[in-house]
Every structure is written in C-alpha cells, then in structure tokens.
Amino acid sequence: MELTELKEYLKKIEYLNSTISLLHWDSMVNMPKEAMEYRSEMIGYLAGESYKLTTSEKMKAFIDSFTGMEDLDLITKAMLENITKEYQKATKIPEAEFVQYEIDKALSQSAWEEGKKKKDFSIFKPHLAKMIAANKKFSEYWGFVDNKYDGLLDLYEPGMTTERLDLVFGELREALVDLLRNIQNSDRKTDDAILKGDYSIDSQRKLGEAILEKLGYDFETRGRIDVSAHPFTTNFGNKDVRITTKYNTADFRPAIFSLIHEGGHGIYEQNIPDELLGTSLATGASMGMHESQSRFYENVLRKSMEFWSYFYPKFQETYPELERVDLKSFYQAINCVEPSLIRIDADELTYSLHVIIRYEMEKLLINGDILIDDVPRLWNEKYKEYLGVTPENDAEGVLQDVHWSGGDFGYFPTYALGNLYGAQLFHKLKEDLPDWNHQVEGGDFSSITKWLRENVHQYGATFKPAELIRKVTGEELSATYFIEYLNNKFGKLYGVS
Ligand code: CO
Fold it and tell me: How many angstroms is it from 291 CA to the middle of ligand 1?
C-alpha cells in the first residue's frame, strides 16, 4: 500500500468532517428554527459515513501495513499514531453499546435542559448516572494505567494524566485561594459599573475588526465574523476559518472580548501550514493548547496595560462617554476580581478555580468515589471552600454547564490548562522578545504573532502538548508561571502580594 493512497483516504474523512462543521456553523448562524430536525438527520448521516471510514477494514489494513515501518518522517509518524488511536478508540466499544449511548445522550441533554429550567437536579440525576457509567466503561475498554479518568482526559489532551494534573492543579488551587483571600481583605476596591453605556452594534463591530486585523487574524480573504448565541470558532481547512460573537448594546465587553478570544483560536488555525492538510494533523495540538492561544490573546494581551495604551484612545474617540474614564480606571475595571457562581462569567483569577472544582468532581465520579446523590452537596461545599460563595439553587450550581449532560468528562481541565500553557509560553516569549511591551504599546503585534506561529502554530498536531511545551520552553508543564503572572498583576492592582 502506498502512503499517497492513505492520504487520499484520509482526505475523504476530512471532507466529511468539514461538511459536518459547515452544516453545524450554518445551524448556529443562519438556519431557520424549524430546520433543526432535518439538519440533525443530515449531520447524523454524514457522521455515520465518517465513522465507517475511520473504523473500516481498509483503515485497519493501512494501519497494519505502515506500523513498524522504518524511515518514516515526523509528520507521517504522528499521522499514523493519530489514526491508530482514533481507530482503536472507536472500535473497542461494542457497536450496540455505542448506539445506546448516543440515544441516552440525547435524552440526557434534554433532561438537563429541563432540570436546569426547573432548578432541580433530581430530573437530571438518573441520566447523569448513565453518562458516568458509560464513560467508565469506555475508559475500561480503552485501557488505562493508573486512573480510570486518564482514558477520558486523553480524548481532549493527548497524554495528560491525573497524576500530573493533581500536581499542577493542586499547586494552582492553593495559590489562587490565597491570592483571592488577600484581594478580598484589601481596602482597594475596583468597580466596573463605569463601563456601562450605549454602544451601537456597528461601532463594536468596527472596533472588533480593527483589533483582530492588528492581531493578525485575516478576515478579509480567509475568515469572517458572524453573530451566534454562543461565540465559537470553526474551520474547514486553513483558508476558511470563521469566528462568531454576540453583541450587547449596554456593554461592549462581551462582543469585543469574545472576538479577541475566538480570534486567538482563529489565528492558530489560519497559521496551520498547507502541508498538514489531509494528514489528520491540521489542527491544534490539543484542546488545552488551542485554549492557550485564545487565552493568551484574550487575557495576557487584551487585559494588559500595554494593549490598552494603544487601543483605548480609539475607544474613547468612538465612545464620548468613555472620555470621563481614564486609562488607569478602565484598566482596573476590566480586571475586576469578584468570586462568582457561574464559570463562564468568571474573571481571570477565579476562573481556574471553577475548572478545578469540576476536575475534582469528575475524578471522584468516574472512579466511583462518590454517590450521585452527593453531587450537589459536594459541589456547593467546594464552592464555599474555594470561592466563598454558595449557589441558591441547582441551576446556578451543579446544573450550570452543558458538558456532563453530553457525556463530556475530561474536557473541563483543558480550560485551565490553556491558562497554564499560555502563561508558560508567555514567559518564554518575553525572553525571546524583550521589547514585546513597547511593540504592543505601539500597536505592533507582528513579532508576537510570528513567534506563536513559529513556535506553536506551524506544527499543528504533530507534537503532543507535553512534547510541544517542552520543545518550546525546555520545561515540563508547570503552574509556576501562571501563578507568578497572576500574583504580579493582581498584587499590583490590589496592592497585595
Ligand atoms: Co476557547
């Protein structure tokens, strides 16, 4: 069998998957409401065809004939490893069980919706039990070394283990809880109410586009910006990378800030080199590494004084009401720390604590170390202990996120990993580009984006995230840099250390 034959075959899978993504994008951006049922059928059919190709006898023959072959280049090796893993993950689960799981999942998602609406965990409880039982079993089919949860982590963050996460998240949790207490005891208070105003959608879109253009996202010839209920990024190859946002005329932050976040994902995908197309490696190294790019742009850059030294005057020109808010007050307002109940509304400091709570809960659930009945109680205890807040009902507590209803265990950690990778990469970037802050102050992001392209983007998924972070920084994944970054930034802002 020839390698070119395998690549042709992989391209077919990529075409199907791109078509599914395009249909999905369309359903979020353009589709009339009542088209949902037919659209789901279309997507379901194409997903089935893609699954058939991924798990076929032909795929097995390809894998068998190339495995163990010597003199393969780096990309071909990574490609083979990737398709072998996909093949095994899919074929080790008995088909009947997988079909049942898909049916259960649909029911689970609607039970979660109802439970959330009625603020009642008991409606979702039996479905959560089914999702957990199925995922436990999947992990057993795939095989794991130390912890059943590792098999699930590996789906989103290849090679990541519970052992490693316990270490870095443990360190991070302690540091965050300490820093948060110090901030809460500080007399310095910040307030973001000064940012409320009347901001037209048109002006927000123009400012957002101007920022993204500066950052290096190409929306003229290889991208576009649309509106959807939840902002997201999707792509079909590296020359069609689309992002979405949503506007609020009373506050420009949701739209502008989510555009910068999604722009970070988009720049990653646009910078994937052509030679990786059709190899199954033309994407980010992992969900966590992808999130590191969006969070680098959204948090490290966008929440910095340097960034706003350049962009804030443009905002003041557009919005006369901001003339009474000076740059320093603006900077403080967009970096306001306030422990809250809802993860997606959390600030840069407390966000990772929300994620760590979910990680700790998932690990217990997948290993059967807590009863489903105890889930809301334990959730609320952890919120009290780490963040000092208590949900009034299940909707603002354990039912707030959609992930568990779709069986997505192992996904949450990637959000916090994005912060850790991002800070670790930033530390190295500053060493390589000591002048980065002056460049940003002058509105020049080109060397930063070039650095990210050369060190991260150009490899796509050729390296596993642990290999990539070692390759770029010379060190293992660590919480140190993110902790240092937060202590430094919020220490100054709140006069604590
Ligand atoms: Co993201």
Answer: 5
Question: What tokens does 480 get?
Answer: 């140190």
Q: Measured in angstroms, how far is the CA atom of residue 73 from the centroid of ligand 1? A: 31
The total of other beta-carbon atoms located within 10 Å of residue 189's CB is 10
For residue range 430-462, list pLDDT tens digits in order.
999 999 999 999 999 999 999 999 999 999 999
Mean pLDDT of 19-36: 93
Q: Of the listed 14, 157, 262, 291, which one is catalytic?
A: 262
DSSP state string for 253-314: HHHHHHHHHHHHHHHHHHTS-GGGTTTT-SS-S-HHHHHHHHHIIIIIITTSHHHHHHHHHH
| Cβ partners under 8 Å of residue 73, min gap 6 | none
145 secondary structure, DSSP code:
S
Which token pair is 410?
A: 């192992």
Residue 1 above 80 pLDDT? no
Around ion ligand 1, residues with a beta carbon closer than 5 Å are 294
Task: State the Cα–Cα distance between residues 359 and 394, nearest whole angstrom.
Answer: 18
Q: Strand pairing partners for 235?
A: 241
Q: How far is the CA of 233 from the centre of ligand 1 (A)?
A: 8
Distance 467 CA to ligand 1 centre (A): 21
How much is the pTM?
0.94
Q: Residue 482 pLDDT > 90, yes or no? A: yes
**248-265 confidence digits (pLDDT tens):** 999 999 999 999 999 999
Ligand 1 mean position, distance from CA 262 (Å): 6
Instruction: Report the alpha-carbon angle 246-15-159, nearest 5.
Output: 75
Each residue's pLDDT tens digit, 274-328: 999 989 999 999 999 999 999 999 988 889 999 999 999 999 999 998 999 999 9
Burial 129-152 (b: 16+ CB within 10 A, else e): bbbbebbbebbeebebeebbbbbb
Distance 198 CA to ligand 1 centre (A): 27
Q: Is the pLDDT of residue 497 over 80?
A: no
Handedness of CA 236, 80, 98, 368 (dihedral sign): negative
Evaluate whether 422 touches 289 at the Cβ level (below 8 Å): no
CA 388 to ligand 1 center in whole angstroms: 26
Q: Which pLDDT score is estimated for 190?
A: 79
Question: Distance between CA 269 and CA 250 in Å, rounded?
Answer: 32
Rg (CA), the chain: 23
262 a catalytic residue: yes
